[in-house]
């Protein structure tokens, strides 16, 4: 029997976290809209819609959605039966650190033994903040051969979101209710300065990136399975636009920093302090990155954040990214020298 053609597509949606993403760069430059405008396809963002962040940013419950953001919600959605596919991973060194009070005398991981470590609690569908702090603290303790059992984890209710990122934990640290706090990203850099706190452990300085596996490392790009099934060329073109955005970002670090200041809600100092110069937004699904994400999945499952296991390698679909690279190669003009001297 003939296969019924998919109806014309008039819009796709994307959502990204307030962190460095190829999606955010492409959106800021207008290249996503430009890619699909000739086809009459609108490209819309959950972040640009009015009102609070759409819950589907976490659940991925939208048939025409691309998501580039933290892996905790992405894995959680898949664990709950969400019909998504993993089509890319990035790895951005993003200022992960453990902060302490300036007069604490704490300068290394071994000194975390027996201390009170802040563990935030947010009343949201998937508490990625809590998962992020837990894995960050586990990574810091692991540098000294310690585990979470070697410290005391102190619940810190996050309260109102209007207080901002990390504010509840940093207030608890400043007031002496906890001894150390895990933080990440540009806003955390500025907040630490504002509170007069110092870095005891710089996870970014560690040679083994496994100590930095967390919500954003690696960071997945996921897509609704229905969109991939019915409109594969749309997925390929979306990914190709992200690849081109990553290429552009590598060549324009100054302009990227201005975009990141807007994306992250921080100032130039926060961006400069959080993200390594020359950081790459390039996508891949290498065995290394999939292995790192599989370690994150195991950690989240062990600590009760995932209701069911996620087979990361089976979740990944390598074909869209391969086709996107092929698409870019076909679009790239061949020089006359190349035509005369084919390899």
Oligomer class = single chain
The stretches of 5 or more residues where confidence is low (pLDDT under 50) are 335-343
What is the CATH architecture term of the largest domain?
3-Layer(aba) Sandwich
Count of β-strands: 10
Question: Helical residue percent?
Answer: 40-55%
Largest sheet: 5 strands, mixed
* SSE order, one letter for each helix or strand: EHHEHEHEEEHEHEHEEHHHHHHHH
Percentage of residues in DSSP E strands: 15-25%
CATH class of the largest domain: Alpha Beta
- Major sheet: arrangement of strands: 2-1-3-10-4
Per CATH, what is the topology of the largest domain?
Answer: D-Maltodextrin-Binding Protein, domain 2
Overall morphology? globular
Organism: Kineosporia corallincola
Protein name: ABC transporter substrate-binding protein
Helices and strands in order:
Layout: E1 11-16, H1 22-29, H2 31-36, E2 42-45, H3 56-59, E3 65-68, H4 71-79, E4 84-90, E5 96-101, E6 116-121, H5 128-142, E7 152-157, H6 167-174, E8 181-184, H7 186-195, E9 197-202, E10 219-224, H8 225-230, H9 232-251, H10 253-264, H11 268-274, H12 287-302, H13 312-315, H14 319-331, H15 336-340
Parallel strand pairs: 1-2, 1-3, 6-7
Antiparallel strand pairs: 3-10, 4-10, 5-8, 5-9
Helix pairs in contact: 1-9, 7-11, 9-14, 10-11
Describe the structure.
- This protein is α/β, with parallel strands linked by helices.
- The protein has 2 domains: 11-91 and 218-332, D-Maltodextrin-Binding Protein, domain 2 (3-Layer(aba) Sandwich), CATH 3.40.190.10; 96-212, Periplasmic binding protein-like II (D-Maltodextrin-Binding Protein, domain 2).
- It has 15 helices and 10 strands.
- The protein has helices spanning 22-29, 31-36, 56-59, 71-79, 128-142, 167-174, 186-195, 225-230, 232-251, 253-264, 268-274, 287-302, 312-315, 319-331, 336-340; strands at residues 11-16, 42-45, 65-68, 84-90, 96-101, 116-121, 152-157, 181-184, 197-202, 219-224.
- The strands form 3 sheets. The protein has a 5-stranded mixed sheet with strand order 2-1-3-10-4, sandwiched between helices.
- Strand 6, helix 5 (128-142) and strand 7 form a beta-alpha-beta unit.
- Helix 7 packs across helix 11 (268-274) and helix 9 crosses helix 14.
- The longest helix has 20 residues, at 232-251.
- The protein is globular and about 65 Å long.
- Mean pLDDT is 87; it is low at 335-343.
């Amino acid at each position: 029997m003939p296969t019924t053609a998919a109806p014309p597509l008039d819009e796709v949606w994307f959502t990204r976290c307030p962190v460095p993403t190829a999606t955010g760069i492409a959106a800021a430059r207008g290249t996503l809209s430009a890619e699909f405008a000739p086809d009459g396809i609108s490209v819309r963002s959950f972040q640009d819609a009015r009102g609070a962040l759409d819950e589907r940013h976490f659940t991925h419950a939208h048939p025409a959605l691309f998501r580039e953001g933290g892996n905790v919600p992405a894995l959680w959605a898949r664990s709950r039966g969400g019909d998504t596919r993993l089509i890319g991973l990035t790895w951005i060194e993003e200022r992960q650190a453990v902060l302490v009070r300036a007069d604490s005398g704490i300068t290394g991981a071994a000194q975390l033994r027996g201390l009170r470590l802040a563990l935030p609690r947010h009343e949201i569908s998937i508490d990625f903040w809590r998962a992020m702090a837990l894995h960050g603290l586990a990574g810091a303790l692991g540098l000294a051969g310690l585990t979470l059992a070697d410290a005391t984890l102190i619940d810190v209710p996050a309260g109102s979101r209007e207080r901002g990122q990390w504010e509840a934990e940093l207030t608890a640290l400043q007031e002496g209710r906890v001894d150390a706090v895990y933080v990440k990203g540009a806003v955390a850099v500025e907040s630490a300065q504002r509170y007069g706190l110092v870095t005891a452990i710089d996870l970014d300085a560690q040679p083994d990136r496994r100590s930095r596996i967390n919500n954003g490392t690696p960071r997945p790009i996921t897509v609704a399975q229905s969109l991939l099934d019915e409109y594969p060329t749309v997925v390929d073109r979306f990914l190709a636009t992200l690849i081109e955005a990553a290429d552009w970002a590598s060549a324009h670090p100054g302009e990227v920093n201005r975009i990141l200041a807007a994306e992250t809600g921080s100032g130039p100092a926060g961006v400069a302090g959080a993200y390594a110069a020359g950081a790459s937004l390039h996508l891949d699904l290498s065995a290394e990155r999939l292995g790192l994400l599989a370690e994150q999945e195991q950690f989240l499952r062990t600590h009760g954040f995932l209701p069911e296991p996620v087979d990361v390698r089976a979740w990944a679909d390598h074909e869209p990214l391969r086709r996107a690279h092929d698409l870019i190669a076909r679009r790239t003009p061949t020089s006359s020298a190349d035509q005369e001297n084919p390899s």
